[in-house]
Amino acid sequence: MNKYSYVKVIQQYYPNYGWEDVSTYCEEELRADPRCARKDLKEYRIAQPDTPCRLIDRRVLNDG
Length: 64
Known about the structure:
Elements: E1 4-14, E2 18-25, H1 27-32, H2 36-47, E3 53-61
Antiparallel strand pairs: 1-2, 1-3
C-alpha cells in the first residue's frame, strides 16, 4: 500500500471564507469514470455562474 492516495477536489470560492471543498473524488471513482470530476465541475459552473469554482489534485495520507 502506498503512503499517499490522490484525490480530485472541486472547490468553490466564498468571499468571507475562501475556498471550500464541495466534492471529493477518490481513485476508485476516477478509475471507473475518469471524467466524472470534470463533468461535475461543469454542472457547478452552470448552476452557480457567479461563484468561482476550481478542480484541484490533492495528496492525502493513507490511514495505518
